[in-house]
Write a structure and sequence with these properties.
This protein is an alpha+beta fold and 209 residues long. Helix content is 62%, strand content 18%. It has a domain of 91 residues: Alpha-Beta Plaits (2-Layer Sandwich), CATH 3.30.70. A five-stranded mixed β-sheet has the order 4-1-3-2-5, covered by helices on one side.
Length: 209
Amino acid sequence: MIRADIIVKGDVQMVGFRTFIKNLADSLSIKGYAKNLDDGSVSIVCEGEKNNIEELVNEIRGNPPSFASIGGISAEYAEYTGEFVSFERTNGDIPKEATLGDLLGVMQSFDAKAETLVVILNDMNSTLKSVKEDTSQIREDTSQIREDTSQIKGIKEDTEVMKEKLTSIEEIHKELLDLRVKYNQLSDDVTEIKIAISELSESRVGVPA
């Protein structure tokens, strides 16, 4: 277990960044707090397993909230103290003694975020349209696969019929071979009979009647 003092710079205030940090810290069993600083950065003081804190830093750097823009991250490590029992997001987005200028800045910030949100929604609409087109293509492909499967089934049935016909042809061929053998045997027998008759006729020649 270690303690870490992390400073995150960039567009990280009034963008839901501390809530993002809290949810991430809770999922990693990290305890401590995230606090907005006057210079526009966010301070994260936390304790937990070293690999979990390193994962927290990597997630902040690589997968920040949509409206946040990370300018830089620095981290200093110290010995674990067991000071914290949970992770909290401290202080507010607007200073307690806010001026009209402060409020105007917040409104301008919200306006900029609304424009970004419109872009995100448009991107989502394009993505949904693409998904719809892909779904239609998948349906067409599925239909084609079903037709191909039906054709394959038909080919399989035709193949079985052809096998049966080949079996019948083989049986007929076998019968023809048997008939040829019998024909050859009969031919030999007829030849022997002819020879016997011829010899008998010759033996009778010259025999007194």
